[in-house]
């Protein structure tokens, strides 16, 4: 087993794609760095925290990106966002078999404020453009920094989200919520609560994550290959029917969880037996237990 | 400007918009056609209920009124910051709204966003910013986050951020900055009804905001970088 | 931020291959971009660091690095966010290994 969590973005790419097949676009040697960080006396990175390119995944041409959580929390600035958009547009031009997004991000890079917000919005539009061109978009979420903010939203614009239990997917970070509304609202130092609320197992049970894998690069890779095949068997585009289903699921989620305060209560309400034991289960055991109870999928 | 005054100026032809729990919905007459209107008021935080209600209204429009333009009126302090919203996956509710807007656009509905008071980050990234085009009134403020919270997270002193927010385009919350960066297609200083008619007529399918940012000089790297990745050329920063 | 430049003449060990990047610009860490360059046999190193005022320390680390490797026609660029000398040396060695395929 080789941990996905512990790898850098640059190390994850060759672990997921077919060995030696990935060609990086606009590599660090091009030195395209952020134009905005210097004014805040912050260091730049030669790839602005994201690797984008094209490779083979199980022999098919797949475009991809990996965000580096270690640089500015993986947050999206002007250059970082533009690299993602360029990659997505090229994937459409070249009729890629799929797009794979290894997401690890705090969302909008606050150091780039307005430019970062517009950038994230452009990434979202470009992901949806790819889907409209019938290109499957698959998101992998399994890094230490999680996938938050505008990228947490973007992840749910993908066809499929694959997570490890270590991964987190949400919008606002617990610290932001605690700062705004107090520790009683959300104790950001209660790690168990944070993971019950935003972690892979919970998202899987809610229906926001379609596949849960152990923290292992081979498992992520296999799940990505399968997810792409499953999407390709139908259509990658948004449909009215799919969105109506999703509307119903989200409306039902709201009603069914009225008055429930803790995610364990939500799992109990879903019918999961012995919900308190969920955090302790290994990924495969969890998937077996959870599969019959998880809320309906999305499109 | 409150939403009723705004609606009067936007829709001299009349409207039936109602407000419930700070959520606006209804329709209006614009240049002889009916336009669906959804939005928010009172700088309301966007939680899962309002996100879902907006998505519902979009889906109903797509089903019942093919091709009908949609106007999104934005006034929000951002996403609601509560444990419950995160537990239930507010990112999914936001994404769902964005996907509904996207579907509507691809089915031929012109979708326009108008920031008429406040817009903060998560509160408008899947409404105004995912529309075919977004506009703002001159007195609107658009920001990513409040300065104190930004200072805490970035570890940049609040005084420095305040200084930057005064006149640095990347940080200042005025719509002129978003216009120059390509985030907004225009600012509507007067004759709102006429501006709306023009906007509805000029909706494009592609996301042209990077090109706008370059053309207007507010965002010089995004377009060249995206093009370099897309075509394999070199980035030539202006 | 501070920018420092170093140049070591008469290296003996050339690089082979395309530019490589090691490391991440995070707290206590750094990234090193290494590539072959036509420098008349020299090794040039440019450092952009968030830790200001440590010129002498960097000089010592670079001198040691050149003594270990003696790279010729090599350009190295560093973005640093306060890494210790030990971490800097480690990353430099990792970078040199990628394009020499060897050990110091």
Automatic annotation (TrEMBL), chain C:
The source organism is Pseudoduganella buxea
- NCBIfam families, alphabetically? malonate_delta (TIGR03130)
Keyword match ATP-binding:
no
One protein family per Pfam: ACP
Q: Which residues form a coiled coil?
A: none
- State where it is primarily located: cytoplasm
- Which keywords, in A-to-Z order, does the entry hold? Cytoplasm, Phosphoprotein
Localized where? Answer: Cytoplasm
Gene that encodes it: mdcC
Question: Which superkingdom, per the lineage?
Answer: Bacteria
PTM sites of type O-(phosphoribosyl dephospho-coenzyme A)serine: 27
Please spell out the taxonomic lineage of the organism that makes this protein.
Bacteria, Pseudomonadati, Pseudomonadota, Betaproteobacteria, Burkholderiales
Mind telling me what this protein is named?
A: Malonate decarboxylase acyl carrier protein
As for PTM, the annotation reads: Covalently binds the prosthetic group of malonate decarboxylase.
GO CC aspect terms = cytoplasm
